């Protein structure tokens, strides 16, 4: 904002004054003491900052009950302040007019923005960019840090300073955390080294256990083989015991009649062979009888002799026929006995005569099994 003109009425030593400024340049007020230089500057400052209800009378010209200050800029905007009997702010900014009565020593927000005022509200609680002549110098009763903060606020760089402070604070916190993490890392590294040592020892023990396991497996296989051998021995002993029991059972049985029948069977087999031979001779005899009928008388005597022999042979054949029936009966009985003996063999599992295993071939005196 550039001031185009200022009009002052009844303000301290000034009864009525209007000053106009060029758009460009720097202006200096020059004059003797008590000619109104400071009063004019105070009037401009009062227009922008206003004065409290308790102090506005100090700025009234003697005999006046109201002072007024009006200012215009080069954009057609104007602001007017009246204090005393009439208390109001009146303005036209951006083509919009407005008015506030009973200001109570305060500046409306719209005018604060227009004048670009900066009031520090934390430490000094004063306007920093518009000051009255001979006011207490700023930044004297405040610390360097507060002065820097107020200056940053006035320049509009407060957020940057706060950001820098936050970054510094976060940096310090991060450094603390880094130091804590480094200490923790050292401890964990020591623990890791200890764990590595323990791991190496455990690996060595594991290797020993694996070797011991291999040994145990080998011993177990040996034990297993021994166990199987012992079981086979026990099974063999059991079989021997059963065999002895079967032999003892066989010893208690009477096989004499069976042996006799086997002998009879052998004899019958021989008789059958003789009978077959006799039948063959009888057939030859019959053939010879047929031939006798055709022989001459002189040969009768020889033939009678032959006939006697034939008669004897017939008797023998008759006996053989009877023996044949006996043999057939014996064969039938023998087959029944053989069937009983076979069933007994299958049940017993050993030879009833010698006690040998029936799965093996063996011989007895006078017979073959």
Query: In this structure, how is the largest beta sheet organized?
Result: 6 strands, antiparallel
What is the share of helical residues? 55-70%
Order of helical and strand elements: EEHEEEEHHHHHEE
Structural class by helix and strand composition:
alpha+beta
Indicate the multimeric state.
Answer: single chain
CATH class of the largest domain: Alpha Beta
Q: Classify the beta-strand content into a percent band.
A: 5-15%
**Alpha-carbon Rg, integer:** 77 Å
Tell me the strand order in the biggest sheet. 2-1-3-4-5-6
Q: Please give the domain count.
A: 3
Instruction: Specify the CATH architecture of the largest domain.
Output: 3-Layer(aba) Sandwich
In CATH terms, what is the fold-level topology of the largest domain? Rossmann fold
What general outline do the C-alpha atoms trace?
rod-shaped
* Total of DSSP H or I helical runs spanning 4+ residues: 6
What does this structure look like?
The protein has six helices and eight strands, in the order ββαββββαααααββ. With 369 residues, it is of the alpha+beta class. It has three domains: 115 residues, Rossmann fold, CATH 3.40.50.300; 71 residues; 115 residues. Strands 2-1-3-4-5-6 form a six-stranded antiparallel β-sheet, with helices on one face. Strand 4 and strand 5 form a beta hairpin. The longest helix is centred in the middle third of the chain and has 94 residues. The two termini are 146 Å apart. The model has no long low-confidence stretch (mean pLDDT 79).
Keywords:
single chain; 369 residues; alpha+beta; Rossmann fold; 3 domains; six-stranded antiparallel beta sheet; two-stranded antiparallel ribbon; 6 helices; 8 strands; rod-shaped
């Amino acid at each position: 904002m550039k001031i185009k003109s200022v009009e002052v009425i009844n303000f301290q030593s000034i009864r009525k004054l209007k000053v106009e400024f060029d758009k460009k340049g720097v202006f200096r007020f020059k004059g003797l003491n008590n000619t109104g230089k400071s009063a004019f500057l105070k009037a401009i400052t009062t227009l922008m900052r206003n004065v409290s209800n308790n102090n506005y009378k100090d700025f009234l010209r003697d005999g006046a009950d109201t002072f007024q200050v009006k200012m215009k800029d080069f954009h057609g905007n104007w602001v007017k302040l009246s204090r005393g009997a009439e208390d109001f702010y009146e303005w036209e900014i951006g083509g919009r007019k407005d008015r506030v009565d009973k200001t109570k020593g305060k500046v409306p927000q719209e005018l604060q923005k227009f004048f670009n005022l900066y009031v520090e509200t934390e430490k000094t609680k004063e306007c920093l960019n518009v000051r009255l002549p001979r006011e207490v110098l700023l930044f004297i009763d405040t610390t360097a840090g507060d002065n820097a903060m107020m200056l940053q606020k006035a320049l509009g760089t407060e957020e940057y300073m706060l950001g820098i402070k936050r970054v510094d604070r976060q940096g310090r916190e991060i450094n603390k955390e880094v130091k804590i993490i480094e200490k923790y890392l050292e401890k964990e590294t020591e623990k890791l080294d200890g764990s590595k040592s323990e791991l190496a020892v455990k690996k060595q023990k594991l290797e020993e256990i694996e070797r011991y396991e291999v040994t145990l497996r080998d011993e177990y296989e040996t034990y297993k083989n021994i166990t199987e051998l012992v079981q086979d021995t026990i099974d063999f002993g059991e079989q021997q015991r059963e065999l002895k029991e079967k032999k003892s059972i066989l010893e208690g049985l009477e096989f004499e009649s069976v042996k006799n029948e086997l002998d009879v069977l052998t004899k019958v087999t021989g008789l059958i062979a003789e009978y077959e031979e006799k039948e063959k001779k009888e057939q030859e005899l019959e053939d010879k009888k047929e031939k006798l009928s055709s022989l001459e008388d002189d040969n009768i005597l020889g033939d009678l002799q032959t006939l006697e022999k034939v008669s004897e042979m017939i008797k023998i054949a008759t006996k053989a026929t009877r023996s044949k029936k006996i043999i057939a009966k014996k064969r039938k009985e023998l087959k029944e006995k053989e069937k009983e003996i076979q069933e007994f063999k299958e049940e017993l599992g050993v030879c009833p005569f010698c006690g040998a295993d029936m799965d093996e071939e063996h011989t007895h005196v006078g017979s073959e099994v």
